[in-house]
Specification:
mainly alpha; binds magnesium ion
């Protein structure tokens, strides 16, 4: 394990490289450069004003896409370090995984996807790749951030077969039903672990979930009862928030510990000698045990039912979708309503590929918006009286 890296980890000396070849940096590794490029990108900074579940103005303490991405990266790095995987690559993938997210969370993506259906659809995961491959504009020599294959592989978590056929190398694994490297497998699960747990915290804070209903969910209930018992008579002097924090921390700890142990056992049994052997496999090696996985899924289903489809969340979502749909129609009809840079992109794309090109440029502009930017554009162009 040279430098703490296992033989199956991504090692930047064996990277499949960048689309535009570059000189190595004097003192930063390839994956460090990727991480730094992501961190300095405009798309990354915008995550601070993008919705995770609760729209930004509902309260200062809710997760945003930015704090979500940081929590994903923190979980990812912990597990990577314990499995001998590349921590820096894991961090880079985790920080970049949501760069393509629209304003207003999944509601925004659904609205944009509906409008984009005649033009190939819109999918935030593919959009994250588009952001780092094409849309960030910071280098003289190329468009995008020119990240390594390994980081791009991790960003592209899933992808339809149709899209995969257009992605060259990167799409191959979806056609062959193979796996990405372990750091990519890990970032994918770290994302789920992070949101499953922080959405419990945010949902309780918002008063949309109750401790009583969560107590029936195995993962929460077990730890909550243990915390209550341990607090004993001190509980009277403690706020409920402390009990919730203590519970959520233990939930994360259980799932992350299980992820490390199960993945370590899988790696020991499969003993892949290199990242290429990992990629050639049919099933992921970074995984939860079946018991923890089913508890994790039970919680995920509960959140979908009780939180993501909660009437209060849905009401906000519907309004958010109306805002994005109206802006899409407006910019399609009149690209000059967009700032000059986007207007020019839309015109050039329309010359090259007609309405589809224009629609893609409009979608890029809309997807890049923060929640509040979309709201202010709507107020300016559609309805100054919008109460948001
Ligand atoms: Mg995410």
């Amino acid at each position: 394990m040279a430098g703490g890296l296992a033989p199956y980890a991504a090692d930047d000396s064996c990277s499949r490289g960048r689309r535009h070849p570059e000189q190595l940096h004097g003192y930063r590794s390839q994956f460090q450069r990727d991480r730094d490029r992501i961190l300095h990108s405009a798309a990354f900074r915008r995550l601070v004003y993008k919705t995770q579940v609760f729209v930004n103005h509902e309260g200062d303490l809710y997760r945003t896409r930015l704090t979500h991405s940081l929590e994903v990266a923190q979980i990812g790095r912990t597990v990577a370090g314990n499995l001998g995987l590349n921590e820096t690559l894991t961090e880079a993938i985790c920080l970049a995984h949501d760069l393509g997210h629209t304003p207003f969370g999944h509601a925004g993506q659904d609205a944009l996807n509906r409008r984009m259906r005649p033009y190939g659809g819109f999918e935030h995961n593919l959009q994250s790749l588009r952001v780092v491959d094409q849309l960030e504009d910071r280098y003289l020599a190329f468009s995008g951030l020119n990240l390594t294959y390994e980081t791009r592989e991790g960003i592209l978590k899933h992808c339809s077969r149709t899209a995969a056929r257009q992605l060259g190398d990167l799409g191959q694994r979806f056609l062959r039903r193979q796996q990405p490297g372990l750091e990519a497998q890990l970032a994918n699960i770290a994302d789920e672990v992070a949101y499953n747990n922080h959405d419990v915290d945010d949902g309780l804070r918002a008063g949309l979930l109750t401790v009583a209903e969560l107590a029936d969910i195995a993962l929460f209930g077990r730890h909550y009862r243990a915390v209550k018992k341990q607090a004993g008579c001190r509980r009277r002097h403690m706020g409920d928030r402390v009990l919730i924090h203590e519970t959520v921390r233990r939930m994360i700890n259980q799932v992350v510990s299980d992820l490390i142990e199960t993945s370590r056992a899988n790696l020991r049994a499969a003993a892949p000698a290199s990242i290429e052997e990992v990629r050639a496999r049919r099933l992921p090696l970074v995984a939860l045990s079946s018991e923890t996985r089913s508890e994790h899924l039970e919680l995920k289903r509960f959140l979908r039912r009780r939180l993501y489809r909660h009437e209060r969340v849905m009401t906000v979502n519907r309004r958010a979708q109306e805002i994005l749909a109206a802006l899409f129609d407006l910019y399609m009809a009149d690209p000059a309503a967009m700032p000059a840079e986007h207007r020019d992109r839309a015109r050039a794309a329309a010359r090259k590929s007609g309405a589809g090109g224009r629609a893609r440029a409009v979608a890029d502009y809309l997807a890049g918006m923060t929640d509040r930017y979309a709201v202010s554009a709507y107020r300016r162009l559609v309805d100054p009286a919008l109460d948001w």
